[in-house]
Fold:
Amino acid sequence: MAISLADLLPDASWDPSNDVLLDRFLKYTTDSRLTLYSAQEEAILELLDGKNVILNTPTGSGKSLVASALLFASLARGQRAVYTCPIKALVNERWMGLCREFGADRVGLSTGDATVNRDAPILCCTAEVLANIALREGANAAIDDVVMDEFHYYADRDRGVAWQVPLLTMPRTRFLLMSATLGDTRFFEDAITRLMAARPSP
Structure:
């Protein structure tokens, strides 16, 4: 039987350094017979180092595996993470997948229509749910890491604000922004760099 990421999480006495987290995640990929592309490797290393990452790679290039690495590190460090998708059906699908990877007790769901285990260390939700948290709690939001899937919705005339608000109001949070269709990302890179430079010291 293949190991899951939940099997590789540390116990309370273990101090998860970047090297150990990377070794454990690579054990998972090897056991699952997955080979990382260079873009995946680079993104994972940057995330483990505490950086914000824009992952703008084609469909089928393994963005979800990079997201799993961030969520694994977040759990291992006792932090809280959120995974957003633009469509409720995708949120439900990703929630079920994360439950298989990390255990149902560690993953919550919130779509507006359904809520399950909302206070879990990983919350799977629509972008609007995260935007509401960001508007209510801002810099005080108890969310350390955020994965925004289909980030090109940032430019959507009607819904883009839900992708913009967390970036503007959650300065202590690290972001993994994923899309296959962003095009030139320099605007986002410059804007996020400015926002993070202005964030208060922990």
In short: The two ends are 42 Å apart (CA to CA). The mean pLDDT is 89. The chain has one domain: 18-197. Residues 167 and 191 are 10 Å apart (CA to CA).
